[in-house]
């Protein structure tokens, strides 16, 4: 009898959650989420969507809701995905870099859906647990505040393959897409209970640069003439750059370590950007295959579809490519939702972030939310109907970064027209402040002109995270991990560290670089002050 009462209470609670979306626990929607990698969210609405044809993203925008200010909680693959899957900020899960993220047994929103009666299935790129990515990637993160400058990436290049009939450039992602389509057509269509499907893609992340050897990162923007024809080349801009001497010291460190401090012609820059947009068009086509399969099987009308990405790509804005930055190209991600209960043709300007997906999905399924989540449900925003139990979204987002290619822990608070970026302990590195309503390109740091705004935003930030303490914890972790790695290598240390991704610069003066690391390992907290301004 007691078990019966508990079951009835759970059903009533689920019905209460679902009532404002006009469905009950018996006809809960299917949920399909497609998450790409490195997709600039500004391409999903005007004027960004004019540069490349993205028909299925445009379809989702027309048939559902698009968030105009959606952000990653950490602009790098694994920590960002850890935040999305856990619903918690990076400093809470201590997902410091691509090597240290969630434990394999961490509870995700997909786990909750499975326990509540959903048939769950995930395929493709997950990338939210610890222990992955290259040795180079983790060593670069551990040594990020060592006072040397070494290029860690290959120079960004383009690679045109195939011809005007070549549609399938990223074969691995197409195989994942095909598997998702087959699952929908042969498994999902016959299920008696609602299902939740996650599809993870690697595009439009740049490809591994084969010519740089096995340790190289991804600096090749590859596409075919078929996808390049989807790009309006006359709309591809050449972004303005600050002079090197005017760059913020952390931004300059990023530019140098990403191998972007050399000379680039306007044609090179425009081509890199055009190829990146073409890769986004190929990603959109994969999204389309999933949507079409849902429509063909009659499931689309009963399915909520979400599209997002772990981070963006700077595509040569701010003299950088890749992510690892709080500038818009890197931190602004797409977020579109369509399906039953979601307003059509709806645009939401309120800043939101990936941690909001966890409570949103649970609300969609009528599943009670666990405590300790950092995010807020977006259902009241996209449905136009408030849930009595829903805490309103605070209207700000937090993003933080502790990995490679940035020589200080970085924290971004986005609220209203402002983007506030602070570093390390808030004292040793000057902050940045951008008014995005007047400076979309983020070329005018107005922190010195608005000290009161900086003070207010910093105060708000500190109510969310004690960031000086977090920065110090990351610093201790980095040193400890590097020491353990070094000791485990023994006599092989000198050879292995000299042949990581930075090998070209490292080997110019290997002994000096080893000596600098040894001095860094002995460095005290007081002696760190000038490292960031080298």
Verbal overview:
- The protein contains 18 helices and 16 strands.
- With 534 residues, the chain is an alpha/beta fold.
- The chain has a domain at 30-379: Alkaline Phosphatase, subunit A (3-Layer(aba) Sandwich).
- It has helices at residues 2-19, 55-63, 77-86, 90-93, 109-115, 135-142, 171-186, 225-228, 249-257, 266-296, 328-331, 357-365, 379-383, 451-464, 467-489, 493-497, 503-506, 510-522, and strands spanning 30-36, 64-67, 70-71, 119-124, 157-160, 195-200, 207-208, 218-223, 303-309, 335-338, 346-348, 352-353, 396-401, 410-415, 418-423, 432-435.
- Strands 4-6-1-9-10-2-11 form a seven-stranded mixed beta sheet, with helices on both faces. Strands 13-14-15-16 form a four-stranded antiparallel beta sheet.
- The model is unreliable at 1-17 (pLDDT under 50).
- Helix 7 (171-186) packs parallel to helix 10.
- The protein is globular and about 65 Å long.
Layout of helices and strands:
Blueprint lengths: L1 H18 L10 E7 L18 H9 E4 L2 E2 L5 H10 L3 H4 L15 H7 L3 E6 L10 H8 L14 E4 L10 H16 L8 E6 L6 E2 L9 E6 L1 H4 L20 H9 L8 H31 L6 E7 L18 H4 L3 E4 L7 E3 L3 E2 L3 H9 L13 H5 L12 E6 L8 E6 L2 E6 L8 E4 L15 H14 L2 H23 L3 H5 L5 H4 L3 H13 L12
Parallel strand pairs: 1-6, 1-9, 2-11, 3-12, 4-6, 5-8
Antiparallel strand pairs: 2-10, 7-8, 9-10, 13-14, 14-15, 15-16
